[in-house]
Every structure is written in structure tokens, then in C-alpha cells.
Amino acid sequence: MTDEEILSHIDHTLLKAVSSWAEIEKLCGEAIRFRTASVCVPPSYVRRIHDAYGGKMTICTVIGFPLGYSTSAVKIREAEAALADGADELDMVINLGDVKNSAFAGVQEEISALKKTAGKKILKVIVETCYLTREEKIRLCEIVTAAGADYIKTSTGFGPSGAALEDVLLFREHIGSGVKIKAAGGVKTREDLEKFLGSGCDRIGTSSAVALLSGGKAERY
Fold it and tell me: Which residue out of 11, 91, 98, 150 is catalytically annotated?
């Protein structure tokens, strides 16, 4: 794959709690210059990015991030606010407590409600694979598909481990035809990027791909 092809699948990400506006501006400048799929940013920056850059890039933000245990009502309100501020895509974290309690109907209802809120905008569902059994991963593939979400996403990048290739392969086997895969967390080398994209990922969330593939040019921003 060419650098340009890889970058077109990258959600260029900055989600640190201490992210400054100067860092966000750098991220956005890189996304525009290198034509990444999106920038993935904290909700508090969505309006400012939208006002500063208009439609020059796709704006992705996170809902219920990073732990996922806020109530569905709170997540819906977060989503409504993010969309009103100008978000184009939403990456939501499921309630892992519900998964561990086998309350799968509640997980599906929450995802369905978030997709209803998102409408035609893209909804990605973060399942945080590092905490899941194989059986739970398979069940969540079925739930994400049934709930009508657009993507299943491996990780927040804030857990004890991130994306694993075997999970992408498992997802590919069990998701519906309308669901795509996003990997996040620990995908840092060109070899990693090519392996994950070649194994079925449509998106990769990472903060390092632009610097890796731009030959240092990204550091101008």
C-alpha cells in the first residue's frame, strides 16, 4: 500500500485529557495536508474545530469515553451535543459492566439508541477487547450488527492493551456485511498498519501514523 492509501484509512487521534488547542491545531493541519480519514478529538474541541476549519476535514469525537459506564441517557445527550457542535462521526464506548453481567439486551438497546441519535452520521462502537472473553467478543459482533452500528472498534487506547490482529480476524468472521472494523491502540509501525488494513480493518485510530508516513514533514504543524 502507498502512504496515501494508508493515511486515507487513519483516524488521526488526540484524546489526551491535557490536549491543548495548539496540539489540536497541529493535528488538524496534518489531517488536511495528508488527507486522513478524520481527526478524532475530545468533545470539548468539536465546536472550535468546526468553526475554525469548516468542512476541510471529517470530525470524529468520542462518547462515554474512555470507561463506558455512564448511563445511556448521558451518552445520548453527549451525542446530541457533539452532533450539534459539528461532529461527523461518533465513537461510543459500551457499558462493560452490562457485558460482564450478561445484560446483552441493554447493550444492544444503548447502541441502537445512539445510532438513532446519529442518524446518517457514522457510529463506531468501542468494545474494549482487552477485557473480553472470546465468547463475549462474538456476542458483541452480533449485537453491534443487530443494533445497526456502522463499525465495531477494538479499543479505546486507554486500556491495558490495544488492538490485536486475532480480534480483527474474529470480528471479520462474525460481524454482519454492513459493519466495518476499526482498530485502535498500539498500531504504531508501518508493518502494523499494513497488517491491520490487510486483515480487514477499514479504519485505524492512531496518533503516530502521520508522523511515521510523512517523513518528518508533519512536524511543521
Answer: 91
